[in-house]
Design goal:
Helices cover 80% and strands 0% of the residues. The protein has three helices and no strands. Helix 2 packs antiparallel against helix 3 (62-80).
Length: 81
């Protein structure tokens, strides 16, 4: 299968189109899964940015903070799957 280039605006439009077909459970499932994955990406990005910020400033407890934060976000995601 050829790799398809995706675009944020197109993603939003496709989700809107799929939501309009509210009588089709398949399409509603697709929208729910897309939104779930988008939230996971946001959660990962937030955790990574917090860790980078902490590492930039350093100091006591940095290693523990980074380890605990990343382990925590991965643990939360694993519970959801």
């Amino acid at each position: 299968m050829e790799k398809v280039k995706t675009y944020p605006e197109m993603n939003k439009e496709i989700k809107n189109i799929l939501k309009l077909s509210n009588d089709d459970p398949f399409n509603l499932y697709i929208v729910a899964r897309i939104e779930e994955l988008e939230q996971k990406v946001k959660d990962y990005e937030k955790a990574i940015n917090e860790c980078i910020e902490r590492m930039t400033h350093g100091g006591a407890g940095t290693r523990s903070f980074v380890y605990d934060r990343l382990k925590g976000v991965l643990h939360e995601q694993a519970k959801e799957n």
